[in-house]
Amino acid sequence: MQFVFQDPRFDYRLLIIGVLAPDVVDVFFGGARVLHTLSFSVALLTMIMLATRNRRGVRKRVLPLAIGTFLHLIFDGAFANTNVFWWPFAGWSFGDAALPVADRGAVNLVLEVLGLAGVIFIVKRHGLADASKRREFLRTGVLQVPA
What we know:
147 residues
């Protein structure tokens, strides 16, 4: 991600919240629901853009939240379920759609291992095994670029 997001003040904490929020919230509704829809991510992005008009600093700080929800849709393969992904345009019912992470079976194990490898890479690349660097990341949300 750090190769894509070049702003040195990009808040990765909000990106993480955006990536995790759809599963954390929708699990309480029994499966993939509103937060797994393209409509939700577009609406969130639109609200952020409208609410932060003429306030670029605030916009840059909260935009990672919307980016995270879009990334969740991609990483989760949410687009594979037409009824959920295109809600409400494909109909108002979510049916019995399970969370994509719970619906993939053995393939999910491979994807989770790849995700863990990515986390390990980021931890090593940015020195987050060091408690002081980890505290700084948790305080600021910024990943320091290694020298």
